[in-house]
Amino acid sequence: MRFALALLLIPLLAVITTSCSWRKNKKKDYTRPLAPGEIALREIDIAKMPDMVLHDREAIRRGIANSLAFLEKKTAFPQPIAGIDKAQVVASLKAIDGLLTTTTTDVQFNAEVKQRFRAYMSVGCDDQGTVLFTGYYTPIFEASRTADATYKYPIYKRPADLVMTSSLEIAKQSPGMNPYPDAATIESSGMLKGQELVWLKDGYEAYLVRVQGSAKFRLADGSAMEIGYNGTNGYQYHGIGQDLITDGKITADKLSFFTMREYFRSHPEEVATYTARNQRYIFFSETKGGPYGSIGQPVTADVSIATDKTIFPPGGPVVAATALSTGNEDHAKLKDAPNRGTTYVGLRLDQDRGGAISAPGRCDLYMGEGEANEQRAGGQYAEGKLYYLIVK
After folding, report:
1. Per the count of CB atoms within 10 A, which of 43, 58, 100, 248 is most buried?
2. Which CATH number fits domain 39-137+298-391: 2.40.40.10, 3.40.50.300, 2.130.10.10, 1.25.40.10?
3. Domain limits of the chain?
């Protein structure tokens, strides 16, 4: 099991900021933390939960197998979270898997779920269940295993002096066990020279890889490469979008993942200045068979989600009721009209988390790989409800 972040592949609008306080809709803060003693889930009458549409039963079953593989580990999910323990999640996954094979229609499936399961709704950002659903995807960048005049931005292996002291991402530097250096120090000091894993030709793309915690590459020699999360320096994530607004680089009404990317492509000399403001730094190892979520298992397109794993039980079946991006949205206008897209009520699996995805009012939907899914992920910005299914 990874320590925490794993796969914030590109939480597109979440890269911009982790709060909605600067938006025109100032009444909601989707990152509102739980109050002391408050839990993230509340049982509701499952009859009031909207019916699901099952788009790909086999993909869900593959995802269930991944969740069960995680839950088989003794170290997985040792204590109940939000009043739900590992045995309940395992039983729920197996019951859902059975229903996926024994029912033939969505009507039958929903009827069985509402008879055999309990529904626990996220309290959301407002104690009324409001959750902001954004999207993320797996980019495929161009890279090289060796540096040259084109490929000059490194992605680093986990350094030998990094000590992760807990699953809460407390990082120390041995031998003195002082806090590990921040991103600016790591980048400017050359302290990790010789620990380069791969090189990219765009400094902002290298930053996005460090934000996401996982990536795939087309290498200069024609081969492919995949890397995954292998530790962090322990600092909290800071979205740099608000900094660009404050400094007058991009206006608030135009800010999106895509306008940020275009800005840094036009001003590469400013990349290091802004990315250093996010003190968090991620280290990597070469992997295969991913991308992987925070439970150490592959994520599945249009099945996996990312939530805050300190307050939600990992691996289990969930229902996401929101509006789903078509990929054709005007990205700059999403933050002012957060419910664009097609109505969606889908069965998902909670298999990931991210540095910007925290609190009961946030959820990221994994869209898949490549440019088409970049558009879908970039257009995903909608409120909705999130339900966890627990078998009776």
Report:
1. 100
2. 2.40.40.10
3. 39-137+298-391, 139-286
Taking only the tens of pLDDT, the chain with its 392 residues reads: 222 222 333 444 444 443 333 333 456 889 899 999 999 999 999 999 999 999 999 999 999 999 999 999 988 888 999 999 999 999 999 999 999 999 999 999 999 999 999 999 999 999 999 999 989 888 889 999 999 999 999 999 999 888 877 555 677 677 777 888 999 999 999 999 999 999 999 999 999 888 877 889 999 888 999 998 888 888 888 889 889 999 999 988 788 778 888 999 999 999 999 999 999 999 999 998 888 888 889 999 999 999 999 899 999 999 999 999 877 655 555 555 555 568 999 999 999 987 667 799 999 999 998 888 888 888 888 999 999 999 99
Distance of CA 9 to CAs 115, 178, 211, Å?
Answer: 36, 29, 7
Write the class of the CATH domain 139-286.
mainly beta
Q: Which amino acid is at 41?
A: L
Q: Where are the alpha helices (DSSP H) in 127-269?
A: 183-189, 203-212, 241-246, 257-266
Question: What is the helix (H) or strand (E) element at residue 92, kind and residue range?
Answer: helix 86-102
Q: How many helices (H) and strands (E) does the chain have?
A: 10, 17
Peptide bond into 291 cis (omega under 30): yes
**Does residue 83 contact residue 380 with C-beta atoms inside 8 Å?**
no
Would you give the distance in Å from CA 7 to the centre of its chain?
6
From residue 362, how far is each of 89, 223, 271, 371 by CA, in Å?
21, 37, 27, 24
| 3-state SS class at 126 | coil
CA dihedral over 56, 130, 372, 226, signed as positive or negative: negative
Q: Which of 289, 250, 298 is nearest to 70 (CA)?
A: 298
Residue matched to tokens 């309290």:
123
Specify the DSSP class assigned to residue 361: T
C-alpha closest to that of 232 among 181, 290, 188: 181
